[in-house]
Design brief:
Largest sheet: 2 strands, antiparallel
Helix content: 55-70%
Length: 173
């Protein structure tokens, strides 16, 4: 919802302006005083609470959506099996009745074709080695941890360390 994001952005800007004013007045040394002032003079904490509520709602929708996708995938698989059973029943009916094909119907033309034999593996360990292929080796994977460790000690061509970032942790009560 755009309103929550807008309110959070607006209250963040108000808190930033308040911190700037406190810094100008020399009152930004006490972190607890700054936090109390922001809480009393802005609606930042309410905006954060609203954003957390919206995150909860979105996560519920995500879970529900994933469950619905699972349900639909199950239904699709069931319908695919049904189609296979019906096709097999039609094939059996034509073969048992020894009907000549093609059979022309108003909505389809049906024919039976002989397929070439398929391979059935009885015991894979008995099959000669000439029938096995070696899969290609996977490409090398960059070890970012080792690269980060090396970058703290020396420069490495083609890479550098960024300034780091912050991470939001939300613990629910």
């Amino acid at each position: 919802m755009q309103g929550t994001e807008f309110a959070l952005r607006r209250q963040t800007e108000a808190a930033r302006d308040l911190v700037t004013m406190l810094r100008t007045d020399g009152a930004d040394d006490d972190a607890e005083f700054v936090a109390d002032t922001i809480e009393g003079e802005t609606d930042l904490f309410e905006a954060i609470k609203g954003a957390l509520d919206e995150i909860d709602e979105a996560e519920l929708l995500i879970l529900g959506g994933k469950a619905k996708i699972e349900q639909i995938n199950s239904r699709v698989a069931s319908e695919e099996r049904r189609v296979d059973r019906l096709r097999a029943a039609i094939e059996r009916a034509i073969l048992m009745a020894e009907l000549p094909t093609p059979i022309k119907l108003p909505t389809a033309t049906i024919s039976i074709a002989k397929r070439k034999p398929g391979v059935v593996i009885d015991n894979e360990s008995d099959i000669p080695a000439r029938f096995f292929v070696q899969p290609p080796a996977p490409p090398p994977k960059l070890d970012k941890k080792a690269l980060a460790d090396a970058l703290t000690a020396e420069p490495v061509p083609g890479a550098h360390l960024d300034n780091g970032s912050v991470s939001l942790t939300v613990r629910r009560k």
